[in-house]
Amino acid sequence: MKTKYVILVGDGMGDYPLASLEGRTPLEVSHTPAMTHLARIGEIGTVQTIPEGMEPGSDIANMALLGYDPAVYHTGRAPLEAASLGVHLGPADVAFRCNLVTLKQDDEGTERMEDYSAGHISTAEAHEIIGALQEACEGLPLKLYAGVSYRHVLVWSGGPTDLLTTPPHDILGEPTAGYKRVYDTTDVLRIFTQRCRDMLAQHPVNRRRRDVGLKQANAVWLWGQGKAPSMPSLQDLFGLRGVVISAVDLLKGLGIYAGLEPVHVPGATGYLDTNYAGKVDAALKALQDMDFAFVHVEAPDEASHEGSLTKKVQAIEDFDAKVVGPMVQGLAAYARCHVLVAGDHLTPLSVRTHVPDPSLYALFKGNVATALAEDEKIVFCETAARESRRHMESAVALFHRFVNAHHGS
C-alpha cells in the first residue's frame, strides 16, 4: 500500500506570549491533545515560512508549505483566488482581491477601516451585492467575480501590477486616506470604487443589516493584484496526486496551480462555523484513491484579525478536535503516512495581522496506530517548538523533508 501524505494547516494559529495569559500563548492555554500526540510520536520544530523581504501573507506562506519557492513562483494573491473561481487570466489580465469592507468616520470626521470583512458578511448577502456591483464595471476594462463571504475578485484587462495596494486587515482602525490614494490617482479604479460606494450606500442588503445592528458593506477594497503564475504540478515534481480542501479561494486556487483537485465542502465558511467534519470526510475519501491531501482551516487567523482571544482558543481547539484528531484516526488504516501539521504564519492577537516570524510545525512519518511517544512532556506550542532546536530555514525545505525529497540550496 502506498504512503499517504497529509498537510493540515491551522491558519495563523501561532502567536506571541500575552500578559493576560501570564506570559503564555493561545496555543499554550488551548487543549490540543491531537497535535500534541503528533509532536510526541514525531517531531516538533520551527519553520521560516516567509522568505526574507517578502510580505507575511497566507498566499506566500502556503505556497511555500506546498513546496514552491515564492521568490520564483509568486505573482500576487488575487490570481490564485481567480483560479478557484474558474476565472482564466489572459496574458494581459491583472486580478485584484476585492474585499467588501466597512469604513466608518470617527468623531473628528476621519474615515477609518472598521472591518475588513463587513462583519463576516454571509456569502448569500455578498453575492446579492456583487450582482448589483456589476453595473459599476460598465464602460471600464473590468470584470467582477463573486467569491465566498467578503472575498471577491476583480479582473482588469491590461491593468498594472505595480500599484502599492494594502491588505485591509493590516490597517484595522487606521485612517484610510493614505492607503486609498492609489485608487484615487488611478482613473479606472477611482471611477469603479466611487461607483461602488454610491451603490452600496442604498443597497437593500445594507439596509437590512443596518436595521438589525450588523456592520454594512459600504465600500470595496482592492489589493493583492497580479498576473497568472506558471507552476509545475506536484505530480510532475513529486509524483503526488491529491486534493486541496479549504473554504478560502486563495488556497483552492493555489492548489489548482499545483495540480491538485479542489474539493467543495458544503458549509465550509472560513470561520468558526465551518464544516470541519465535512473537510475531514472529504480528505479521507480522496485518500482512498489519491496520495495527498492539503487541508486548510482559516478560523484561527480570522479570530486573530478580530483580536479575540476567546475565539482564537476556540478555533485552535476546534482545529485539533475536529480536524487533526479525526484525520489521524482515519490514517490509522494505512501502514504508512506522512502527516504535517503547521501554522502558515503567526497572526498575533496583539497586532491583529500577520508577522514574518518563524511558525511552528509537527511532523510524523510512519504508522500512527503503532507509534509510541518519544517525550511525554512535549506540548504542541511555540515554546516547545523553539526548545526543540529543530529549525527549518524555509517551508520549501520542510516540504521536501515531508515527502522525503532532496532539497538543494
Automatic annotation (TrEMBL):
The keyword Iron does not apply. Coiled coil: none annotated. One of its GO terms (molecular function) is metal ion binding. It catalyses: (2R)-2-phosphoglycerate = (2R)-3-phosphoglycerate. One of its GO terms (biological process) is glycolytic process. CDD domains: iPGM_like. It comes from the Bacteria. Keywords: Glycolysis, Isomerase. Pathway: Carbohydrate degradation. Gene3D superfamilies: Alkaline Phosphatase, subunit A, Metalloenzyme domain. The keyword Isomerase applies. Residues 4-380 form the Metalloenzyme domain. It holds the Pfam family Metalloenzyme. SUPFAM superfamilies: Alkaline phosphatase-like. Catalyzes the interconversion of 2-phosphoglycerate and 3-phosphoglycerate. Belongs to the BPG-independent phosphoglycerate mutase family. A-PGAM subfamily. This is Phosphoglycerate mutase. It comes from Desulfosoma caldarium.
